[in-house]
Amino acid sequence: MHAEGTIPVENARLSSAATRDESGKEVFIRARGVTVRFGAKTILENLDLDVRRGEIMGFVGPSGTGKSVLLRTILGLNQKQAGTIEVFGVDYENANDRDRLAVERRWGVLFQHGALFSSLTVLENIQVPMREYLRLSPKLMDELARLKIDLVGLAQDAADKYPSELSGGMIKRAALARALSLDPDIVFLDEPTSGLDPIGAADFDELIMTLRDTLGLSVYMVTHDLDSLFQACDRIAVLGDRKVLVEGPLSTMLEYDHPWVKSYFHGKRARTVVHNGKSVVQSKPNGAG
Ligand SMILES: Nc1ncnc2c1ncn2[C@@H]1O[C@H](COP(=O)(O)OP(=O)(O)OP(=O)(O)O)[C@@H](O)[C@H]1O
């Protein structure tokens, strides 16, 4: 679905083949043995992770366990001290300019709090990645940005508004529209529903699921939101003890015997959920585990 003629084809293609798991599924992100330290403090140690094409993967864990650090390390914004991270089969940190560009064209990022440019309108914010990576006429950029506004369920009159004129939910949607600006294969979302009321958060989850289903979008979502984990995520990874403690579908989380995982997924806020429209899981009340 990439707009034709927007970037020289040779610059948009990766030189390496796609990575696949044992079952043949394409793996968009593969981390092996990743260690990240800040000074004497080790945040992540020998961490392994796979995120596959077309799945919504949720990342959860106690505050300060390194969820944002892992996200930033995958994006090349933090240095790691050991290990490898492949994105679309490319070792992004050590890749040549052409492969880095090709990777950047295929991912979109929604940072916590939206992080829109306050001096730009919604339309101009959505066009920032287009200006950076593509060569398009102003008219075509306007048309594409307006398509993204539709895609995320914003009214067209939001196009000319500044972030200060938007509600929290509209800011999240505008930031998502910007993350989708280049028609990415994967979006990284850092706490996308934080600060939204429950209805706004549920609507946002619904939107993410629709994008996965209609565009085949993969989603890497850091969240504390139980509803998002229960309703939107195909798989969940729990970060703890400097690594991925456990990963799998919600049913795996509910069965996993670890104090934090038990208290989180069976705690006071856990409830009867319908996961992915496929199964009904009855969680035990009041931390009964
Ligand atoms: N640039 C940095 N320099 C030094 N320490 C850092 C840096 N970035 C993060 N840290 C530390 O790494 C640890 C993990 O932080 P991180 O923000 O990844 O946690 P988190 O799991 O996302 O937490 P939360 O759920 O509260 O958002 C924290 O102790 C934080 O202080």
Automatic annotation (TrEMBL):
Residues 29-266 form the ABC transporter domain. It holds the Pfam family ABC_tran. This is ATP/GTP-binding site motif A (P-loop):ABC transporter:AAA ATPase. Signal peptide: none annotated. The keyword ATP-binding applies. PANTHER family: PROTEIN TRIGALACTOSYLDIACYLGLYCEROL 3, CHLOROPLASTIC. Keywords: ATP-binding, Nucleotide-binding, Transport. It comes from the Bacteria.
